Structure prediction request, 125 residues.
Amino acid sequence: MLGIAFKPESDDVRDSPALEVVRRLVEAGAHVTATDPRAIASARRAHPELTVDYRESAEETMRDADAVVLLTEWVQFRDLDPRAARALVRRALLVDGRNALDATVWADAGWRVRGLGRAAVGPGR
Prediction:
């Protein structure tokens, strides 16, 4: 998970849709690794019951991932190099929950991309 704050440039996790996604994935049995430039400490305090492996960087978070989910549109995440990111993951599946990334650029780098309200693009769409 890339982003857990309610919005970028904030550590606010109150009513964060990202944390609801995390909660549902954990309840479904997923191992969730997440990062956020400012909201990790806030998320730990607000939701100690969530079994989440918090990491300090996007690169650490994506390493060996089966899917990458963008949940807060931080500039650090929008500026990720999709080719470099592809080398980190086990499976190149990106779910852009904010429609903040250029799906065509990511698909050209070998990613299967899903965005809210958008058709899938990339390999195996």
In short: The chain is about 30% helix and 15% strand.
